[in-house]
């Protein structure tokens, strides 16, 4: 059974909406770093923002992803990751930066299970906002950078269909052979608001289970 399942892709591709739908089914998720880190950085007017210091922003994302990966060690059943360590390398490539050796080492050490799901660029649903400042060209480039980075790292990618959230969730279950189900032996988890996660909820001492 896959233990660490990554869903990656470009911004505005419906990736996080799918992750939240799987969380609503009772699956354990590890939330995306980007938005929470941007909110935190803006709240304190800090330097680790992608439009101020992209390299520093990448380092904060890397630390987040390593922590999320380690947190899954204490869990049973599948864990859905909204991005993973290779996304940091994909981000750096998208902005024209080289991938440092320590990021390469992190990709080798902190591995996930196959397959990795890729949400492709989807122009009909893409739209920028105050946190997602990429334009359509950057969104497309990001999706392709993630495809290249995960493939180069030895992962088998499965592209998600451009379909409804429910259809995408069903697709994930089919690809995983019905193994992507919550552990019935787990205690009832806390259920914070899933649609508008703040930093405290996105970066807890333990991951979200059954977020709705």
TrEMBL record:
Name of the protein in question: ATPase
InterPro entries: NadR/Ttd14_AAA_dom, P-loop_NTPase
Organism: Haematobacter missouriensis
Region (Disordered): 177-212
Residue ranges of domain NadR/Ttd14 AAA in the record: 4-168
Bias (Basic and acidic residues) ranges: 203-212
Domain of life: Bacteria
